[in-house]
Amino acid sequence: MEPYRTSSGVLVRPRPVTSRYGGPGETPAKRRAARQERRLRAYRIAQTVPHIPKGSRVLDVGCGDGELFRWLGSRLGLGMGIDPLLPGSIVGARYRLTRGWFPEDLPDVGSFDVVTMLAVLEEVPVEGRAWLVAACTRRLGPGGRLIFTAPPGVTDQLLSAPATRLEVGPVDLFVCVVDGPPMAGPSMPGPDRMR
């Protein structure tokens, strides 16, 4: 858009209409969808944080922009995140985010107390889910916790698969499945479900 003068002679330089919900060309439906996604992400993180002990070494697979680590703040011992959509490596006060695919691009930094995958499993083809969970459990130390979120159908299928009956990790592995927001129906047991 070009600058123009009003009838009183004031020069007006139009700017595109933008907001935190989207820029020019974003439809109201796209803005609503983006708001809903942010709410779901905040819900998943809020349900996950209480299951992460203070001072833990945390690996976040599919970390996005590292929001989980910012929520943990001083409770975080050390955080390592990996995501193929990151523009590059990002280093925070207590965490490091790496661009790449898990597990092949993750630097060898030892074992972790907690491995999280928030809204990742539903994006993985069915045949690769058990393999991904097994790869996560191999990164856990003794007494480690695997915390993931997924729709109920995905978690039921995954936890009943022979490769993921907790025989792929340490004997004392703690698996926490954090379901999505509670919805009516018998298939959704609630926001927290431990196995």
Your description of this structure?
By secondary structure, this protein is an alpha/beta fold. The protein has one domain: Vaccinia Virus protein VP39 (Rossmann fold), CATH 3.40.50. It is 25% helix and 26% strand. The protein has helices at 28-48, 67-72, 126-138, 152-160; strands spanning 4-5, 11-12, 56-61, 76-83, 90-91, 95-99, 112-118, 140-149, 174-178, 192-194. It has an eight-stranded mixed sheet, sandwiched between helices. Strand 7, helix 3 (126-138) and strand 8 (140-149) form a beta-alpha-beta unit. The longest helix has 21 residues, at 28-48.
Rg, rounded, reads: 21 Å
Instruction: Give helix and strand order, one letter per element, not per position.
Output: EEHEHEEEEHEHEE
If strands are numbered along the chain, what order do they take across the biggest sheet?
5-6-4-3-7-8-9-10
Helix content: 25-40%
CATH level-two architecture: 3-Layer(aba) Sandwich
Number of DSSP helical runs: 4
Q: Can you summarize the main beta sheet?
A: 8 strands, mixed
Shape: elongated
CATH class wording: Alpha Beta
Name the CATH superfamily assignment: Vaccinia Virus protein VP39
Provide the number of structural domains. Answer: 1
Given the helix and strand composition, which structural class is it? Answer: alpha/beta
Strand-residue proportion:
25-35%
- Extended strand count: 10
Query: What is the CATH third-level topology name?
Result: Rossmann fold
Task: Pick out the low-confidence regions.
Answer: 163-172, 180-195
- Span between termini: 57 Å
Averaged pLDDT: 78
